[in-house]
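Researcher: Good morning. I'm working through a list of sequences from a screen, and I'd like to move beyond sequence-only analysis. For each chain I'm collecting a predicted structure so we can compare shapes side by side. This is the next one on the list. No need for commentary yet; just the structure.
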Amino acid sequence: MKIVTFLLALLILTGCARNVDVPEGKYGLKFELGKIEQIVSGPSKLQKKPFLESVLLINKRDSIILGDGKFTIHYRVDDPKKYYISVHGNMNLVAIIEKEIATRSLKGELVNSEDLLYKMIENMGLPITLEKAPNTVLKSGTPQSGAP
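Model: Good morning. Structure tokens for this chain:
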């Protein structure tokens, strides 16, 4: 009887899915037992089952501060799954870029300007698009037409 009660309770809990709002400007990644099962772009909703599934929200656009506050890098996430795997899976984006700067510094390559920093990040193969300022996409280190 205890097993039947347990199974009934488990069935009720897994059947009680709840909606998670994915706001404008974010991606929603739904995980089931640690594996990405679904990705949506906000505004949207994801339905998740308690205990079995989780949802992670990732900003579509963000900025990071590097070099002890000398540089602010603006970027847009191109592929949320690849971004999660390359950035959230091992360390954060700042740590990845700071590690690359340190490696280049040890080789005698100084990354001492914003343009050099942008070019270095572009060559790292991260699933992001760099922007000089929000909504101004860079191509090969120069702003698109219409951007200052």
